[in-house]
Amino acid sequence: MNTTLLKTLTGVGILTVFLAIGLHVRIGNGAIHAGRNAGQTRQTNQANTNNDTVPKSNSPFVPAYMKLHESGELAKRAQELWSMLESCNLCPRNCGVNRLAGERGYCRAPGSDLVIASVQPHFGEERPLVGQGGSGTIFFSHCNLRCVFCQNYQISILGRGNRISVEQLANAMLELQQFGAHNINVVTPTHFTPHIVAAIDIAAGRGLRLPIVWNTSGWEHVEVIQLLDGIVDIYLPDIKFAYGEDSQTYADSPTYPEQTKQAVLEMHRQVGVAHPGAAGIVNRGLMIRHLVMPDNAGGSKQVLDWIATNLPADTYINIMEQYSPHHEAFNYPRIARRTTAAEYQSVVNYAQELGLSNLDSRAARWLNN
Predict the structure, then answer these.
(1) The domain spanning residue 175 has which CATH number?
(2) Whole-structure pTM value
């Protein structure tokens, strides 16, 4: 069986996750089984459909979406987003294809079907998201960008994964809560926004009480982000590029810088600055990621200039050092190598010079080295 098996022991038992690469996804005691075809999917953990049997989070935190769920507004938002699939404009590509009729746009998502690559408690995210229980990550297949250096290109570009139903997605969220995850972290969610919002509404009615992390490339329509107001508690966008020429060359998205900036400002308007609460966990706020690329291909200092000028000085920023040439990066000499320690150090020091005071701990340790 060509799958990856993850076993993690906790007080609630063993969570077994088979990453969905070609065969199936399995979560916990069988909440999800997804075959090769959408018609093979089936719900097997009927206990999760009963609100009385799904443990709620022990945290006193109440996620933003509960108010909208109780008023019925969350279901209305899901329906409004779903209608956008008829002439898809969920992202700045504005493909206009009819996904409800099975058409595929630039992202290559299979019509209105939902495809995920894996579900798991993840311990490699930012520390305020991970805590002791992990970040409950759901990795979605396909992507609206074409980053030539993508380390997950098998999922984002080749689209590996399995089709599941919205109902199954809701149960995956509940399984992650039962496992003890601190949040529901939806990774590369943009092209499946309607499905995710509908699943949150279902899961909220069955006991989901974890904050939603919108883990995005940043290249979003402001109008779509506005529809997530009161649903998402934590926004985790990338700001990959400062210049359109670079974003066109390396991600096939010339409008990336400006549209991402507009989206990030709207995200901040909704949730504000992210500050850890009890046990160092963030439940609400904006957390920005920026990957330092070789030869300043991402315009790192210019990205930091924009943040310092347009957002509070204590905005949470993860300046990431792990760039490595993946996928097609070796075809682009400028980025066909790892980022050097000196390049990374220079960017972190510049953030400090700008007065940006809330750097991720992995970057902060480089200060004054």
Answers:
(1) 3.20.20.70
(2) 0.86
